[in-house]
Amino acid sequence: MTRPDIIAHRGGALLWPENSLTAFRGALALPVDEVECDIHPSSDGVPMVIHDATLDRTTRASGPVARRSAAELAATPLRDAPGEGVPRLADLAALLAATSHRLRVEVKADADGRPYPGLLEAALGVLDAAGLRARSVVIAFDGPTAARAAASGGLAGTVWLLSRRVLSRLGPAGVVAEALALGVPEVDCALRDATPALLATVRQAGLRFGVWGADRPAEIARALALGVDALATDDPLSALRLRDR
Fold this sequence. Notes:
The protein is of the alpha/beta class. The protein is 37% helix and 19% strand. Helix 1 (21-28) packs parallel to helix 3. The longest helix has 19 residues, at 164-182.
């Protein structure tokens, strides 16, 4: 059976407040292979660690992330992490610098699904400043963004994330053809959409295959049995126990 990389999704969102420095510190205390975060830009172009394009769900403010400066966002309280604001990617990179863990960065799109101009390049600049490019994996649903990340060179990996709509439209063979055209070495999808046939087609093309959404023990067990290369989970502690038992 393949021994997959265990990725603390949003820092381990079932264990700690998602995308908070508390979560990342907790995840980095575990022998996970990677910690994963999401980024949107501030109004002044600074990559900020937050999943949604708006502040409403995870902070005590509202409105688009991209309408506030980095300083304003850093001072915006997280709903479930007392005393913390929205972290900068640089804050997370500083935590990683003293560890051997890899960092997985999802370059998000705006609320309308449009890529943010310059966000990938700003993120790569942060990773370079921290000396982390070689330990970082860039992931994105937007194919051209994933392709630009792959072409930038020096990363530990790049991943094209497959939505259900894209997977349904392209099918396994079409996914492989597109991934090869983009130049990305890995494709990931939600566990609910993962099948042995899809995995086999991806592997036959020499690509890696990963899943997200394996958050409960039964889901984690299913992903392990499938034989994925990468498993992003909100409960990395359970995933480690099940993988390594």
